[in-house]
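Self-study notes.
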Amino acid sequence: MVRKTKCAIEKLECLPRLSSLLIPRDQIYLRPCSRRQAYRFELRPSGQQLCNLRQFAGSCRFVYNKGLGLNTARYNKKEKRLGYAGLCGLLANWKKEHPFLSEVPAQALQSRP
């Protein structure tokens, strides 16, 4: 897995490549431009870390689909949809119904897509 994690933008003065001999050096137009620089890092999780990442992703997908299904059903009944706070309130009940959700940190399950 490769991620771009750091980005730096620097303000530089760009000089023209070819300057005319007829224009004095002090009158050459200098325009500011930006240079974008990024660093790439490769994550190499161990076996247990990879298992945990997959479990977290699967649990987040399950909670997202459960919330989406609930809001779709409410929409079909012409009811108001549940927002972020309403769905987070239901998360405690879902954890009781499905014990595998208790193994995942709540912050991961509450995050928005």
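Second protein, same conventions, sequence then structure:
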Amino acid sequence: MARRVESKENLLRDARALTPRVLLRISLDGSDVELLAGFRGSSLSLYYGEDPVYHFNAAGELRRAYVEGQLIKAETGNLVFLRRQPNDAETVLQRQATDSAAERAFLGEMQRRLDQLRTAISGQQYEVLGEAPSGGEALPLLAAWLDANWGVIIAASPRVT
């Protein structure tokens, strides 16, 4: 039987490897979005709801993403796009052919989202929905990370370190 991919339920509660973490409501493109930002050491993960999701390493480089149902990982400074292909026995990840235009479009959209988040935080245009641990430092860490990382750089590897 094919494996079923379940929906993420409560990342603020369940993403314990991301400490500290904060759940924000921000307005993006005219609609409210719940965004979870969490740190594992100096590495940042951003969850714009269930999709898109971006993971960065300690150097601020993109290492993994999940966008429009597609997995994306860094490999030797380039992006590799993967698609889940379920069958009766298992789910297989298949590499998708991409061109530089598709990669540029993906990176441009990600940068636009990061810029909107930076603007919302600097303009205090957000609502904190939750934080773990409570009274933590996730929001100041996120603001500092966004200020320090203006351009998107692709990591050499999808690993955290």
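Instructor comment on the second fold: Residues 1-5 have pLDDT under 50 and may be disordered.
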